[in-house]
């Protein structure tokens, strides 16, 4: 297995830094009653996306033909787990609380797409 041409710890650290910045910006605009939901959403998205980034950065060369499927699988798992946990925790999401979920989810998906594109650009698909 080849060593990645970029530092996975740096890429994951940049992602976590972006999430912390977004969290504090979002916290400034969210009402206090949404803080628990916001903590949960940011933590959940940060954990799942960090696992995705770790796997894709270390196993991207080995599974280069399946990277797109891994991305789609993690996106599906992320939404499914969120909805299952939301159901079991009894969280009702109103329109005013939607941004507390959507902002970290959207930021995570955009970062996943950028990293996946970067990895695919660097891989050679010649057998």
Gap between N and C termini = 15 Å
Any low-confidence stretches, pLDDT <50, length ≥5? Answer: none
**Morphology:** elongated
User: Counting H and I runs of at least 4 residues, what is the number of helices?
Assistant: 4
Organism: Psychroflexus salarius
Transmembrane segments: 6-25, 37-60, 66-88, 95-114
Protein name: ATP synthase protein I
Keywords: Membrane, Transmembrane, Transmembrane helix
Molecular structure report:
By secondary structure, the protein is mostly helical. The protein has one domain (8-122). It has four helices and no strands. It has helices at 8-29, 35-59, 67-89, 98-122. α1 packs antiparallel against α4 (98-122) and α2 packs antiparallel against α3. It is elongated.
Brief rundown of the structure:
With 127 residues, the protein is mainly alpha-helical.
Features:
127 residues, 0% strand, elongated, single chain, mainly alpha
Q: What is the element layout, followed by pairings?
A:
Blueprint: H1 8-29, H2 35-59, H3 67-89, H4 98-122
